[in-house]
């Protein structure tokens, strides 16, 4: 999915629901990859990063990958202030329009 991820300018032109869906897909893909999850395993948007089993190092790797793919910085404060994938997705969606 990330290979065809639109540039930030294009992402901002999408309707809200499409932009959110793309961002959610990207975030979930990154976390599932970092957790070595199979397609059959359920990923919860409401469980904290560390409760999922991520270490600080793996979380930093996810952050860097998301920044690269989204074309913008995600502050460490925002990451720790939004400690679940669902909260991070909401934060990224709110920021993508600005």
Write a concise synopsis of the structure shown.
The protein is mainly α.
CATH class category label: Mainly Alpha
Number of strands: 0
Number of helices: 5
Classified in CATH, the superfamily is ACP-like
- Poorly predicted runs of 5 or more residues: none
Order of helices and strands: HHHHH
Distance between the termini: 24 Å
Q: Indicate the overall shape.
A: globular
| Corresponding CATH architecture | Orthogonal Bundle
Helix content: 55-70%
- How many structural domains in the coordinates? 1
* Average pLDDT: 87
What is Rg? 13 Å
β-strand amount: under 5%
CATH topology: Non-ribosomal Peptide Synthetase Peptidyl Carrier Protein, Chain A
Overview of this protein structure:
With 98 residues, this protein is mostly helical. It has a single domain (2-96), classed as Orthogonal Bundle (Non-ribosomal Peptide Synthetase Peptidyl Carrier Protein, Chain A). It has helices at 8-13, 16-34, 56-70, 76-81, 85-96. The protein is globular and about 35 Å long.
Architecture blueprint of SSEs:
Elements: H1 8-13, H2 16-34, H3 56-70, H4 76-81, H5 85-96
Supply the key terms.
mainly alpha; Non-ribosomal Peptide Synthetase Peptidyl Carrier Protein, Chain A; 5 helices; 59% helix; 0% strand
